[in-house]
Amino acid sequence: MAIATAPAVAEAGPLGDALQQLDAAIDVLGYDQGLHRLLARPRREMSVSIPLRRDDGSIEVLSGYRVQHNFSRGPAKGGLRFSPQVSLDEVRALAMWMTWKCALLDVPYGGAKGGITIDPTMYSTAELSRVTRRYTNEILPIIGPEKDIPAPDIGTDEQTMAWMMDTYSANVGYTVPAVVTGKPVSLGGSLGRPSATSRGVVHTALAALAYRGLVPARTSAAVQGFGKVGAGSARFLAEAGVRVVAVSDRYGAIHNAAGLDITALELHVATCGTVCGFGGAAEIDPDDLLTLDVDVLVPAAVEGVINLRNAHDIRASIVVEGANGPTTNDADAVLDDRGVLVVPDILANAGGVIVSYFEWVQGNQAYWWTADQVEKRLETRMLQGWRSVLETATRRGLTLRQAATVTAVSRVADAHLTRGLYP
Ligand code: GLU
User: What pLDDT is recorded for position 1?
Assistant: First the structure.
């Protein structure tokens, strides 16, 4: 196993932003440099080569990573991402954000993330199965229900989790459903897990609208991304009465000022594989979606899309971060100056890991909840999270992101300090 050493400081990108957010939280909390250093570095990380036999018989070697940022509050937890943009630094940032997300929502995990540098759309299902299985085999020594529990992220889904669970189980000699969450229901997955992140996004979006005195029926939204998070966010916003005027995917963006028919759009995407070409809308430049005159903007795709190039032009009064790290720190400061309310990723998109936790609890008890129970408990947790972040932000004069990070860092630090340093 190749164990790399994380740098203490990164210059730019998501890792630079994640480290700066930690620095700021440490300053607010008044912790010493030792604790800072401890939280800035992942506890463990693994880089692996993944040899893949393509369907044509040729061999390719892919790069994969699993970073476990922290274990102070429980086993590490976080998704597995398949994307051409995956790098070790990106996975480090995403793992750190998972630690804060779990602590903030008080689910008993530390943070982790995995990634493979691959464009999954360019590979057959059989090839993706081989990649997933070989990767799982490589990281097997460091994952497990009590160690680190992967889940879906960008480019992966229930099927990926089924392959991981099967590979892990075949290796240890018995079936271990709890090694992953986001599994198919037939393998011990939870009802409501696929829609959990987007439901959570919409719970916080509606809470933010109410906080700003806005009524859903008189507001509009634009959603960047029409994947697992974006499509559900658009649907649940529309169901709540919000006029969803624009959505985008990796192929393009569409707009209709009167509001998109999300049900019809979902049918279109199911047949055509993209939002482009949808009859009930005009195509627009995907970059323009971010600066539309809407009340709510939901970036639900990738990191860094709201940055210094467009932060001054964002016209939404509320940004709800469905993606992890969609706003760079520089842009965040601009949005704050301009009075834009940003509901940060570690709160807004925490619904996924909350229902992952519910899945783990249900599996441990071998007792399954109804979809309604899952959804009600998810809503309760999301709104508790929203209220606590808002209360901290108001009391300490912080942005919602600063308040969320401070709350999360203090919980992780408390757990660490109470356990003490070994030896
Ligand atoms: N990938 C999701 C996230 O970024 C879910 C992680 C999980 O359920 O463990 O929060």
Answer: 39
Ligand 1 atom closest to the Cα of residue 355 is 8
CATH code of residue 107: 3.40.50.10860
With b for 16 or more beta-carbon neighbours within 10 A and e for fewer, the 89-109 pattern comes to bbbbbbbbbbbbbbbbbbbeb
Q: Establish whether residue 198 lines the binding site of ligand 1, counting it when its CB lies within 6 angstroms of any ligand atom.
A: no
State yes or no: is 101 an active-site residue.
no
Paired sense of beta strands 2-3 and 252-255, if any? unpaired
User: Residue 245 is part of which domain span?
Assistant: 196-348
- 212 and 251: one domain? yes
pTM of model > 0.90:
yes
Atom of ligand 1 nearest to the CA of 154: 1
The pLDDT tens digits of the residues spanning 273-293 come to: 999 999 989 999 999 999 999
User: Ligand 1: distance of its center to the CA of 153 in Å?
Assistant: 6
- Residue 210: per-residue pLDDT: 98
Q: Using an 8 Å Cβ cutoff, are 254 and 275 in contact?
A: yes
Q: Which atom of ligand 1 is nearest to the CA of 101?
A: 10
* 398 dihedral zone (left: phi>0; alpha: psi -120 to 50; beta): beta
402 within some domain: no
Sheet containing 341-343: give its strands across: 282-284, 252-255, 243-249, 220-224, 296-299, 318-320, 341-343
Alpha helices in 173-229 (DSSP H): 196-211
Query: Which of 77, 113, 183, 228 is labelled catalytic?
Result: 113
- pLDDT category at 259 given cuts 50, 70, 90 is very high
Span from the CA of 225 to the centroid of ligand 1 (angstroms): 17
Whether 103 and 76 have beta carbons less than 8 Å apart is answered as no
Output the CA 352–ligand 1 centroid distance in Å. Answer: 5
- Last residue within a domain, chosen from 333, 348, 363: 348
Quick check: CB of 344 below 6 Å from ligand 1?
no
Whole-number Å distance, alpha carbon 13 to ligand 1 midpoint, is: 20
> Do residues 76 and 111 touch, judged by C-beta distance below 8 A?
yes
- Give the separation between CA 202 and CA 212, rounded to whole angstroms: 15
Instruction: Tell me whether residue 14 is in a domain.
Output: no
Domain count for the chain, please give it: 2
